[in-house]
Write a structure and sequence with these properties.
Layout lengths: L1 E3 L8 E6 L7 H17 L6 E6 L11 H4 L10 H8 L3
Length: 90
């Protein structure tokens, strides 16, 4: 995981993340999201946080995600990493 702080007028931080693929263990996935949460908690709240990267996340059409993702979805069902991404920071 890496991040860069861009000191600009409106955008103060950009993060780059590569999450483990679906073949990896739950432990390795949990540790990435825990590390990401710790990093988010460490960054001052007034900074804008933009998360970029390969999260290997597929979010589907389940009703529980409609509030977060809206009505337009490419995939029918979510993958584990998609669920983790939608629930991140909540």
């Amino acid at each position: 995981m890496s991040y860069i702080v861009l000191e600009g007028r409106w955008c103060n931080i950009v993060l780059n993340v590569h999450a483990p693929s679906k073949e990896k263990s739950y432990y390795s996935k949990d540790s990435i999201y825990e590390e990401l949460q710790q990093l988010f908690d460490h960054i001052p709240k007034l900074y804008m946080k933009i998360l970029l990267g390969d999260l290997d996340a597929k979010v589907g059409r389940e009703n529980i995600f409609k509030l977060t993702t809206g009505n337009k979805h490419l995939h029918e069902d979510s993958k584990d990493n998609g669920v983790r991404m939608v629930n991140f920071g909540t």
